[in-house]
Specification:
Elements (H helix, E strand, L loop, with lengths): L3 H18 L6 E5 L1 H17 L5 E5 L5 H5 L3 H7 L4 H11 L6 H4 L7 E6 L7 H14 L6 E6 L16 H5 L1
Parallel strand pairs: 1-2, 2-3, 3-4
């Protein structure tokens, strides 16, 4: 069964594999949606347990933590009105050790952090990405290392298509 710890361990194993083969090339963690929590977990673990900073972290369609994200995803709209939503859904995530606390992770990171969010994201609202950015920015000593880029609705990038934006390589660089 997938676990938060397992995802993080897998990313760190992939990091070790890539680092051993990349020479002096930069390696960054790029997470999309649920993967943003995994990316911040792995970056934090690498920093705290090994004293290594990943070269950068890019978060696309991010959220603060899984509990808050679960209350905003469209499918939960139907269930939020019923008694027991918190117990059955939100508490179940906690009981399964699924927290994905990007809000806590970004407070201790020191590597460059780029948060990308589309204004028309119907799965994870842009205000979650903005909140995460504000948390990171207030915690980072070097504020220039934290950036937040939003993509206007007119581009139609939604939750899944930021990577299709032709300007993305230049923005990330």
């Amino acid at each position: 069964h997938p676990t938060e710890s397992g995802f993080t361990t897998d990313v760190l194993a992939l990091y070790d594999w890539a680092k051993a083969r990349s020479g002096n090339s930069s390696i960054l963690f790029w997470g999309h949606s649920l993967g943003t929590g995994i990316a911040t977990n792995a970056a934090r673990k690498l920093q705290e347990e090994r004293g290594i900073q990943v070269d950068a972290v890019v978060l696309e369609s991010s959220y603060t933590n899984i509990r808050e994200a679960a209350t905003h995803v469209p499918i939960s709209t139907l269930y939020r009105q019923f008694p027991g939503f918190e117990y059955l859904i939100l508490d179940s995530l906690a009981l399964a050790d699924m927290f994905f606390r990007s809000d806590e992770n970004v407070k201790v990171l020191a590597c460059p952090l780029l948060i990308l969010h589309a204004e028309d994201d119907a799965v994870l609202p842009p205000h979650l990405g903005r909140q995460l950015f504000e948390m990171a920015r207030s915690a980072y000593k070097d504020k220039t290392k934290v950036k937040f880029i939003t993509f206007p609705k007119k581009l139609g990038l939604g939750h899944d298509y930021i990577s299709f934006n032709p300007e993305l390589p230049a923005l990330v660089k």
